[in-house]
Automatic annotation (TrEMBL), chain A:
It is found in: Cytoplasm. It comes from the Eukaryota. Its main location: cytoplasm. The lineage of its organism: Eukaryota, Fungi, Dikarya, Ascomycota, Pezizomycotina. This is WD40 repeat-like protein.
From TrEMBL, chain B:
Residues 21-252 form the Ribosomal RNA methyltransferase FtsJ domain. Keywords: Cytoplasm, Methyltransferase, S-adenosyl-L-methionine, Transferase, tRNA processing. The keyword Nucleus does not apply. Its EC number is 2.1.1.205. One of its GO terms (biological process) is tRNA nucleoside ribose methylation. Belongs to the class I-like SAM-binding methyltransferase superfamily. RNA methyltransferase RlmE family. TRM7 subfamily. S-adenosyl-L-methionine binds at G53, W55, D117, D133, D169. Methylates the 2'-O-ribose of nucleotides at positions 32 and 34 of the tRNA anticodon loop of substrate tRNAs. It comes from Lojkania enalia. This is Putative tRNA (cytidine(32)/guanosine(34)-2'-O)-methyltransferase. The lineage of its organism: Eukaryota, Fungi, Dikarya, Ascomycota, Pezizomycotina. InterPro entries: RNA_methyltr_E_TRM7, RNA_methyltr_RlmE, RNA_MeTrfase_FtsJ_dom, rRNA-MeTfrase_E, SAM-dependent_MTases_sf. SUPFAM superfamilies: S-adenosyl-L-methionine-dependent methyltransferases. Residues 265-287 are annotated as: Disordered.
């Protein structure tokens, strides 16, 4: 092995080598200042090998982050195969350069490095239009614009797999991978003669990673000729997807465009189909009253067929051609006119229970029709004396195990809704019982928008109804009552109402998860147009409801439905211009369809098959559009975490049925909080809490693990209630309370805080918070009091930022800040007083005993009581030193039991995380920092009486060190403390669990 | 972000505008000088990675105009301005003219200041500005020529009249990929050191930005070979949340016979020749401070038995010094400003970003930019 050297030795961000022939290597390199140098190394027989620079490409306006030399590719409009070079840059462009002439003809090619590189004439700084006159080079073949931030990599796709064109793949900081095709430029658009001859057309974009920065992406050809795009990003997630244009099984498949069908298309397809069979007598659509024939409504009968109604009162049955080989389908293979009804003219609504293929259609005069897929029969079911507003169906079972249905019919502006029990064990569906549900304008409003049925006996149960105004009401239904002669008994009134389940927005879907079959208690899962998913615990015997989960979803806000698939919760709805199907358990998008926004007339049905997916049909610009997708649009190879670095972390260990349960909460610069569970040696993702609008500063759990507290900038401080719910609900999280900012502009950061449980109150806490403007506050929170928050005391330090505040005892706190000093503050004695409705004035705190523990900021602080009277405090500084304090809490006034002990040069960088560890009655400290070392120290507290001359009370020893892969460590915590080993979780850019083995 | 919200967050940003500095970085150099008296007996200086030029401004005002910013002069006189910037005082202090503001000192003789950056800079009186990549070999002759324009010998690899001080505030545009950022930063440090080795006179000083991240102890150990005293300092104007700090190396002592060359430039992974008698190890020490606190230095560590092959390098932790007066502004604190505060424009508009054209294209394309034609 020998070293080959270039004559240009400046800093490079990127390079690519191509072994062109046995004796020749082509090299492309991108510099920090935007140049691309192309050179080669040649080995000649009997001669010394040499290298030379062929060309320097100018044009990029920022550093070059990626370069790639192609194999020989066939460009349209060029006779010979070409060799191309692609590059991407800080200037957010992708560029392609023609290097064929350079590589074609070795000997004739000009050599640029006749003179030494050190004597170059061209400056090596950034080109700048203001200062430089020439900056573009004519070798540029094409430029691609499209990335929204820096582009990290670019590559050509293997031409043997994409024979019909030249394609490129790029990915970048905007967390997208983009596919480009080189196409000849439209000559008419070529303005300047120097403009590139080709253009780069953006043909597909994949955005399935979170946060920022796709660091790595590639096209894999190992899946049986099916090319796949694989990408990994800063979130640590690796995904795989199949961009549509990549040849699958050697055939290039066009991206399925959404099919459009006009009413006339459907009509003529139905006519074609009916050809030969007895044609139904229908009124011609040119009837003047129905000049404007259009689609009224859609409802799915099963995963591949749906009913549609038109304005002229026609009902069609449409069948979708589902090709299981195909990822996306969009064609209707069969269209049948089922019937035309006079009373469906001008108005109709429909709904269906797709699991058993039964649909209901109603019109303006109150006739309800039922259609059964199994028998293809449409029949009249029922009649009500008013225009039907909407219909909701729910499935249940009869004593014999047969399916039966409940159908709720609301009337236009009606104060009562009709509930029908429909038996299906007869030859055709029949109404077996009926009753009225009385709606309250005052309590819920009249507009029902969703229902769920709760069977509690064979005779009846409850109806849960969601309303447009955001509430959910419960109605008790007894089948027996429905036959009663007594008018009043045939009416059901709301027995309870949960208000503002989705704020003031529509409750679009409800699911009931009973604790057991026929159980009187269980969970209500709902979604709404506020973009939230909520879970309430409901006990029907006591009529008690408790909100146990309420988190906003990252899609929406128009969430329109939810269902269970493989024990996971899937929701769907509209996000800006798209229809989105989203797995809210794994937080992965399943399907995304450009529908042009939310629409009034649309329907969706999911596939219950293993792969999942579904079909969406909607009306846009008076045509019906359809798209069916089998399986998710991408698969996760390795799940990820935060899109940016973790700034705070806290671990909660609780015992559940003798088993330890470890929850890890992480808060990141991306403003999200995530909850993970440590099970069987794996860190498993559970929940994302989205509410903060600034990076998270600090996180802490209550001792019981029932509460999580979080702080950030803009004086954000939230109290989260966390519960374990039965599968498939997972961990329930509710933001129970929000601290009200006190400063005028509420622009302070709450740098750190500490929590103590209030005495004599079950759900009450006292907090000390450190603010960036140098003040501390002591606050009391009582979940059960009428006035939940009280400010107990406020103290001002100086003007420097405080970074730490901890309770040393119930009567003292300690603070530390960027000025390197710690101070002790004594608190008023009546902190645990009950919250008064007229709060007492907050007392003023003053600080005492300042001690210089660092030269500048304290970056991390941990404290642990050593005995009844002393607390050990450990602080890690930006000055790379470790400070130890022994505070005595024996008297009401805290002071130090020992002068501070400072270990300088403890790390090579700032110390940013520490933890105190008690093991076999010895005291250990773990520290870590930006230098990516983890150090273990032992602290020996000597006995005052036996202290030798010149010996310190505190002795500290280095025990061991190990490396961590986590950059920018921000926090660490003890996860498991065993006899033989201790497990520690470390967070920063990523997360790592390290093991300390004790011998 | 609007300039007034930046005003609120950053006291030094406000102060820089009030005092006419091109960047808030000026205070980093001033605070380093406060601690290390960097400009004492200094006439010839090289400022690397200098754009937009606030360090060069400091050099020009100290060396050419003879202004004094030392500990003594500065703090007192800036008190009023400080309380104004901190929002304690509503009235802006009357601007004193330069003569009163600073103790006048005689401009120094034979001053030469050369500044280099990738970005073009606006001219400054008495400063030679070069647009170049400090990692590029062609920059060495360029620098030598700028230092001695009259006697320049294109074949020389060292300066006939060496300089007293080399400063470098070089920082890459961080990518967010930690290992890469730290690598590029250390490359810039090596490039600056390589230039310093060519032009610095024995006993000269070298100040450079460093990221206190992974493997920074390897860099410290290398610097310790060519300088008598190496410290890592962090000015208070540098944010606590940032891993940036500055190595202040004093007493340049190139190993005998060592010559920096163009052919083997230093870079990450480089090792300087270890001198005959390696620097003595720091032993464990204990010191009781005036305030009673006990300071312990556990001494240099024995090379670990981590047995990592890549680890073939000396590690050494440089002593840390926070500089700037404690009563100076805290770059992490939030200050309360009076409501009617007028926000000044920056002294120098920021240089156009490399993606300026992309932004223009995006504006042209409207909502369609970066979107593949939808599925419709
Ligand atoms: C923090 S700024 C310097 C600010 C300057 N000290 C001042 O006071 O105005 C960092 C500078 O490093 C420059 N830089 C980065 N890489 C460089 C390189 N390879 N060669 C020269 N300059 C470089 C950047 O262009 C940027 O202007």
């Amino acid at each position: 092995m020998s070293e080959l050297t270039s004559s240009s030795r400046s800093i490079l961000y990127s390079a690519h080598l191509l072994w062109e022939t046995h004796d020749k290597i082509l090299v492309a390199a991108g510099t920090a200042f935007g140049e691309i140098v192309l050179w080669s190394w040649i080995r000649q027989p009997h001669c010394r090998s040499f290298s030379r620079v062929h060309s320097v490409f100018l044009g990029h306006e920022g550093s070059i982050f990626g370069v790639r030399i192609s194999s020989n590719v066939a460009l349209k409009s060029r006779k010979k195969p070409q060799r191309l070079l692609s590059s991407c840059s800080d200037d957010r462009t992708i560029r392609v350069w023609d290097i064929s002439s350079i590589t074609d003809n070795d000997r004739a090619a000009p050599t640029l490095d006749e003179t030494h590189d050190a004597n170059r004439k061209q400056h090596t700084g950034f080109s700048n239009a203001l200062v430089d006159t020439t900056s573009t080079s004519s070798d540029c073949l094409a430029i691609g614009w499209g990335h929204l931030s820096r582009v990290w990599s670019v590559d050509f796709l293997d031409p043997t797999y994409s024979p019909e064109g030249v394609f490129l793949l790029s990915s970048g900081e905007d967390a997208t991978s983009r596919m480009w095709e080189i196409i000849p430029r439209d000559e008419t658009l070529r303005t300047a003669a120097a403009a590139p001859a080709f253009s780069l057309k953006l043909i597909d974009t994949a955005a399935y990673n979170n946060g920022k920065n796709i660091w790595s992406s590639t096209i894999s050809k190992f899946f049986l000729n099916h090319q796949r795009l694989i990408s990994g990003a800063a979130d640590g997630k690796i995904i795989v997807c199949s961009p549509y244009f990549l040849p699958q099984s050697n055939n290039r498949i066009m991206k399925p465009s959404i099919q459009e069908y006009s009413v006339q298309d459907i009509e003529s397809m139905a006519l074609d189909f009916a050809d030969g069979a007895t044609t139904l007598q229908t009124n011609p659509t040119d009837n003047p009253a129905f000049k404007s024939e259009f689609f009224r409504s859609y409802t799915f009968l099963d995963s591949k067929s749906f009913l549609l109604t038109t304005n002229s009162g026609k009902i069609y049955l449409e069948t979708i051609g589902l090709d299981p080989q195909c990822f996306q389908n969009n064609t209707i293979t069969e269209s049948v006119l089922v019937d035309q009804m006079d009373d469906l003219k001008g108005y109709s609504v429909c709904t269906a229970e797709a699991s058993i293929g039964i649909a209901f259609v109603a019109g303006s005069r109150g006739s309800i029709y039922v259609y059964q897929k199994a028998t293809s029969v449409l029949s009249k079911l029922y009649s009500i004396r008013s225009k039907v507003g909407s219909m909701f169906v729910a499935k249940t079972f009869t004593e014999t195990g047969a399916a039966s249905l409940v159908l709720l019919i609301t009337l236009m502006r009606g104060r009562e809704a009709r509930l029908l029990y429909i038996d299906l064990d007869q030859s055709e569906p029949t109404v077996s019982a009926e009753m009225d549900i009385v709606l309250s304008e005052l309590l819920t409003g009249l507009a029902v928008t969703s229902i769920a049925y709760v069977p509690t006996t064979w005779e009846g149960g409850y109806i849960l109804a969601g309303f447009r105004r955001g509430s959910i009401a419960t109605y008790k239904i007894l089948r027996g009552d429905t036959d009663s002669k007594d008018e009043r008994k045939r009416k059901a009134y709301a027995i309870s109402t949960i208000e503002r389940v989705h704020g003031k927005e529509t409750v679009t879907a409800i699911q009931w998860v009973p604790s057991r079959f026929f159980s009187m208690n269980g969970y209500i899962i709902s979604v709404g147009r506020d973009g939230y998913s909520a879970v309430h615990y409901l006990d029907l015997s006591t009529n008690c409801t408790t909100l146990v989960h309420n988190l906003s979803l990252p899609v929406g806000p128009s969430i329109e439905g939810l269902y269970f698939h493989k024990n996971q919760i899937v929701v769907y709805g509209f996000s800006s211009t798209k229809f989105i199907l989203y797995n809210s358990t794994s937080e992965e998008e399943v399907m995304s369809v450009e529908t042009g926004g939310a629409h009034r007339t649309w329907a969706f049905e999911y596939f219950s098959s293993h792969e999942g997916g579904g079909t969406v049909v909607w009306t846009r610009a008076s045509t019906m559009r359809i798209l069916s997708q089998v399986g998710p649009n991408h698969h996760v190879i390795r799940p990820g975490g935060h899109g940016r670095e973790i700034k705070a972390m806290a671990v909660s260990t609780t015992k559940v049925n003798e088993q330890s349960r470890h929850l890890i909460a992480t808060g990141a610069e991306d403003t999200d909080i995530k909850v993970f569970e440590y099970v069987g040696g794996d860190v498993v993702y559970r929940r994302t809490l989205r509410k903060h609008t600034t990076g998270i500063q600090h996180l802490q759990w209550s001792d019981s693990g029932q509460y999580l507290f979080s702080s950030g900038g803009c004086e954000e401080f939230y109290i989260w209630r966390v519960r374990q719910l039965p599968s498939p609900l997972g961990i329930g999280v509710v933001c129970e309370s929000i601290f009200t900012p006190e400063s005028e502009h509420s622009d302070l950061r709450i740098m750190s805080f500490d929590v103590r449980k209030r005495q004599n109150v079950e759900f009450g806490f006292i907090f000390t918070m450190a603010f960036s403007d140098s003040h501390v506050g002591i606050y009391s929170y009582d979940a059960t009091a009428t006035v939940k928050w009280q400010t107990l005391a406020i103290g001002n330090y100086f003007t420097s930022c405080l970074t730490q505040s901890v309770f040393l005892s119930s009567s003292t706190i300690l603070t530390a800040g960027t000025d390197g000093h710690s101070a002790i503050w004594s608190l008023p004695s009546d902190l645990d007083r009950p919250h008064a409705s007229a709060p007492l004035l907050a007392s003023t705190l003053t600080w005492k005993y300042p001690v210089r523990i660092h030269q500048n900021s304290s970056k991390t602080l941990a404290s642990h009581p050593l005995d009844q009277e002393t607390v050990l405090i450990v602080s890690g500084g930006d000055d790379s030193s470790l400070a130890l304090l022994l505070a005595s809490t024996s008297s009401s006034e805290s002071a130090y039991a020992h002068p501070p002990t400072i270990i300088v040069r403890a790390h090579a960088s700032a110390i940013t995380a520490c933890a105190i560890l008690l093991f076999r009655s010895r005291v250990f400290i773990l520290t870590s920092g930006n230098d990516q070392w983890i150090r273990l120290w032992e602290i020996i507290v000597h006995n005052t009486s036996t202290l030798g001359e010149g010996q310190d009370l505190l002795e500290i020893k280095r025990v061991k060190r190990m490396k961590t892969n986590v950059a920018d460590v921000s926090s660490m915590a003890i996860l498991e403390q065993g006899d033989k080993r201790t497990k520690v979780v470390i967070c920063g850019v990523g997360m790592e669990v390290v093991r300390i083995a004790w011998d | 972000m609007g300039k007034s919200s930046k005003d609120k967050r950053d006291a030094y940003y406000r102060l820089a505008k009030e005092e006419g500095w091109r960047a808030r970085s000026a205070y980093k150099l001033l605070q380093l000088d406060e601690e290390f008296n960097l400009f004492e007996n200094v006439t010839r200086v090289v400022d690397l990675c200098a754009a937009p030029g606030s360090w060069s401004q400091v050099l020009s005002r100290v060396l050419i105009k003879g202004e004094k910013f030392g500990r003594a002069g500065w703090n007192e006189k800036q008190k009023d301005m400080r309380s104004y910037v901190l929002g304690l005082e509503k009235e802006k202090p009357v601007q004193m003219d330069a003569a009163e503001e600073f103790e006048k000192n005689k401009p120094r003789e034979g001053v030469r200041i050369v500044s280099i950056d990738l970005q073009p800079m606006s001219p400054l009186e008495g400063v030679t500005m070069l647009r170049a990549d400090i990692t590029h070999p062609s920059t060495i002759p360029l620098l030598l020529k700028a230092l001695d324009p009259d006697t320049f010998d294109p074949n020389a690899t060292s300066a006939p009249h060496p300089v007293d001080l080399v400063i470098s505030d070089g920082a890459p545009d961080v990518t967010g990929l930690h290992d890469l950022d730290i690598y590029v930063q250390s490359q810039l440090l090596w490039a600056a050191l390589n230039l310093a080795l060519c032009v610095l006179k024995p006993g000269g000083k070298f100040v450079a930005k460093i990221f206190r991240g992974k493997d920074v102890d390897l860099l410290f150990a290398q610097l310790k070979i060519v300088f008598e005293r190496v410290k890592v300092a962090k000015p208070r104007s540098s944010r606590a949340s940032s891993i940036e700090a500055f190595v202040v190396c004093e007493g340049f002592c190139p190993p005998p016979g060592f010559k920096a060359t163009l052919d083997t430039p230093l870079g990450a992974g480089s090792q300087l020749p270890t001198p005959e008698n390696p620097p003595a190890k720091t032993e464990m020490s204990r010191k009781v401070r005036g305030d009673g606190a006990i300071e312990i230095d556990l001494g240099d560590e024995e090379e670990g038995d981590e047995g990592d092959v890549e680890e073939a390098g000396l590690r050494w932790i440089a002593p840390f010094l926070a500089c700037g007066d404690l009563s100076a502004y805290d770059s992490d604190a939030t200050y309360h400003l009076p409501k009617d505060r007028i926000s000044l424009d920056p002294v120098q508009p920021p240089t156009a970003p490399p993606y300026k054209r992309a932004l223009e294209m995006r504006k042209l394309a409207g909502g369609a930019y970066g979107k593949t034609k939808g599925q419709e």
